[in-house]
Amino acid sequence: NVADIKKLKTSGICTIKGVQMTTRRKLCQIKGISEAKMEKIKEAAAKLNSAGFVTALEYSDARKMCFRIATGSDELNKLLGGGIESMSITEVFGEFRTGKTQLSHTLCVSAQLPGANGYSGGKVIFIDTENTFRPDRLREIADRFNLDQNAMLDNVLYCRAYTSEHQFELLDIVAAKFHEEPGVFKLLVIDSIMALFRVDFCGRGELADRQQKLAQMLSRLQKISEEFNVAVFITNQMTADPGGKIF
């Protein structure tokens, strides 16, 4: 019923495919969804959309929906086969001050430009975990590509994440936004993916918990990228000590 659909959407489950991508245990954790109701939801989703095998040819046709977003660098585009790909996660990692955030900012602009193979450009969502997002930098990049600064900024949705839990919760809002405006958003940026996990999980004693939570987030990001055909771009800072902190 309508109330159950609303409960699912509040939890970031907005499509039939989203139901199929969610475990039974996760569905039962949604307030107001009993085990019996969960089974009915799963059964209805299976009837509406078969999740069985397809031929490689059929999958090849489905992959034609993928697009690539240019990075602003011809050499990097060559390495990536044309740019960062939709329906997948692209991670850039390196030491402090090696250009990871700069590339994130450039992609916020280049994602709005028409590209190869009929790519029309679109909006961007930027999740900032380290307070490194700078609209003024985007204005400078917009000038490079001859874009109207205000129109470009209006196409970027920004949110500051303060804890690893908050970062995860924002993905439900992201999924809902992608569902509300299908095909409009082309890129999700998280800069950076690990910063808040390093703060919230301290030392080697909590390393296993941290890795499990991180794996859950990456799984959620992959499902979102496939469900809504968007590119996901994440940054990560290298560290020699997995139990250490970044100050």
What does this protein structure show overall?
- GO terms for molecular function: ATP binding; ATP-dependent DNA damage sensor activity; DNA strand exchange activity; double-stranded DNA binding; single-stranded DNA binding.
- InterPro entries: DNA_repair_Rad51/TF_NusA_a-hlx, P-loop_NTPase, Rad51_C, RecA_ATP-bd.
- Keywords: ATP-binding, DNA-binding, Nucleotide-binding.
- The protein has 247 residues and is an alpha/beta fold.
- It has 2 domains: 2-48, DNA polymerase, domain 1, CATH 1.10.150.20; 65-237, P-loop containing nucleotide triphosphate hydrolases (Rossmann fold, 3-Layer(aba) Sandwich), CATH 3.40.50.300.
- It contains 12 helices and 7 strands.
- The strands form 2 sheets. It has a 5-stranded parallel β-sheet with strand order 3-7-6-4-5, sandwiched between helices. Strands 1-2 form a two-stranded antiparallel sheet.
- Helix 10 (164-180) packs parallel to helix 12 (207-228).
- The longest helix has 22 residues, at 207-228.
- The model has no long low-confidence stretch (mean pLDDT 90).
- Distance N to C terminus: 49 Å
Class computed from helices, strands and strand pairing: alpha/beta
Output the number of helix runs.
12
Largest sheet: 5 strands, parallel
Q: What is the CATH level 1 assignment of the largest domain?
A: Alpha Beta
Brief account:
The protein has twelve helices and seven strands. With 247 residues, the chain is an alpha/beta fold.
Can you lay out the helices and strands and say which pair or pack?
Elements: H1 2-10, H2 16-20, H3 24-28, H4 35-48, H5 56-63, E1 68-69, H6 74-79, E2 84-85, E3 88-94, H7 100-110, E4 123-128, H8 135-144, H9 149-154, E5 156-160, H10 164-180, E6 185-191, H11 195-200, H12 207-228, E7 231-237
Parallel strand pairs: 3-7, 4-5, 4-6, 6-7
Antiparallel strand pairs: 1-2
